[in-house]
Write a structure and sequence with these properties.
Blueprint: E1 7-12, E2 18-24, E3 35-38, H1 51-56, E4 62-65, H2 84-97, E5 103-108, H3 110-121, E6 126-132, H4 140-149, H5 159-170, H6 180-190, E7 191-195, E8 198-201, H7 207-211, H8 222-226, E9 233-238, H9 246-255, E10 260-264, H10 276-287
Parallel strand pairs: 3-4, 3-5, 5-6, 6-9, 9-10
Antiparallel strand pairs: 1-2, 2-4, 7-8
C-alpha cells in the first residue's frame, strides 16, 4: 500500500454541515485536471485511501470528501436532506470554493448517481465520469439487501467483531477474500473507536430514514444518464454485482456507443477500483483525459 500523503480540510456548506475532504497533491508531473472521488451510501473517504495515492502518482490532484453524516463530516440535523441531490450540490459548491472549474468525477454506487446529477445540473463541470458499479437502473435485489442492513448493524466490542460484521454484510461481494487482514482493513474504513472499547459505524444512522423511503431511487434515472452523452465515461462493473445489471450496461452502451466498460472478475458490489482489471481500465481512461 502506498503511503498516505494528504491534507485533511473542511468545507462549510450553505445550510450548515461541514464537509471533511482529503486533498492529495499530484506526486508526479501534472497530466491533467483534478479528480473528485465520491463514495457510496454508507461509506466515507477512507474507501479511497489506496486508490487516491495511485491516481495522484499519475499526475493528478485528487479530492476525496466524506459526504455529510459520514466519516468526520458533520451530521445533518435535518435527515430529509440526506439524499444524492443534496450531496451533488455540496460537491459542486466544494469545487467552486477551490476555484476548480472542471474535474473528472469517479463515483462508486451512490457516488455514481451523484456524478450523473452533477452532469445534469452543471454539465460544464464534469469533464469525464467513472461510474463504479452503478447505472440508471438499480437491481431490486441489491436495493433490498442494502435496505436490510443500513442503520441496523450492532456495535461490535473489538476490531475482530467489526471485521466479522463487515464480512457478514459484504462477504458475498468478495467471495475470494477469506483472510482476516482484508476484512480488518474494511472494518477500519467502516467503523471507528471514538473511545477505548467503544466501536461505532462511521455514518449517521439517520441516513436510513431516507434509504428506507419508497422514493429513495426514482423510477427512471435514464434522463440523468442522458446528461453524460457528451462526456467521456467509463463504467466499471463487478462480475457478481447485485446493483448494476448486465442488461443495464448493454442499454447504456446502446444509448452511448462510445461508453468504455470494464468488468472486474470475482467481485460484487462494489469494486474498490484497485483490483488489477479495474485499475488497468481506470489508469488507461485517465491517461486519455488531459483537460
Amino acid at each position: 500500500m502506498m503511503a498516505e500523503q494528504f491534507a485533511s480540510r473542511f468545507f462549510h456548506t450553505d445550510d450548515g454541515p461541514r464537509i471533511e475532504f482529503r486533498e492529495y497533491p499530484a506526486t508526479a508531473p501534472v497530466t491533467g485536471i483534478p479528480v473528485l472521488c465520491l463514495h457510496g451510501l454508507t461509506r466515507n473517504n477512507r474507501d479511497f485511501e489506496e486508490l487516491a495515492p495511485m491516481i495522484a502518482a499519475c499526475g493528478r490532484h485528487v479530492l476525496v470528501p466524506s459526504q455529510r453524516g459520514r466519516g468526520v463530516s458533520d451530521a445533518d440535523p435535518s435527515p430529509e436532506r440526506y439524499h444524492p441531490g443534496t450531496y451533488a450540490a455540496d460537491m459542486l459548491a466544494l469545487l467552486s470554493s477551490l476555484d476548480i472549474s472542471r474535474a473528472i468525477f469517479i463515483g462508486t454506487s451512490m457516488g455514481g448517481l451523484m456524478t450523473m446529477i452533477c452532469a445534469a445540473l452543471a454539465p460544464a463541470r464534469v469533464a469525464a465520469a467513472v461510474l463504479n458499479d452503478v447505472g440508471p437502473e438499480v437491481d431490486p435485489k441489491g436495493l433490498a439487501r442494502i435496505r436490510g442492513y443500513v442503520g441496523r448493524a450492532e456495535d461490535p466490542t473489538n476490531w475482530d467483531g467489526a471485521a466479522t460484521i463487515c464480512r457478514a454484510i459484504n462477504g458475498s461481494a468478495f467471495p475470494n477474500e477469506t483472510g482476516s487482514e482484508f476484512w480488518l482493513k474494511v472494518a477500519r474504513r467502516v467503523f471507528w473507536e471514538p473511545e477505548p472499547g467503544r466501536f461505532t459505524l462511521q455514518y449517521d444512522p439517520a441516513i436510513s430514514q431516507v434509504v428506507n423511503s419508497p422514493a429513495v431511487v426514482p423510477s427512471d434515472l435514464w434522463p440523468l444518464f442522458e446528461a453524460l452523452k457528451p462526456v467521456p465515461t467509463l463504467v466499471v462493473r463487478g462480475e457478481l454485482s447485485d446493483i448494476l445489471m448486465v442488461s443495464t450496461v448493454e442499454e447504456m452502451r446502446r444509448r452511448k456507443p462510445d461508453l468504455v466498460v470494464a468488468n472486474v472478475p470475482g467481485v460484487g458490489h462494489a469494486p474498490f477500483l484497485t483490483e488489477p482489471a479495474a485499475w488497468s481500465a481506470l489508469r488507461s481512461f485517465l491517461s486519455g483525459q488531459a483537460s
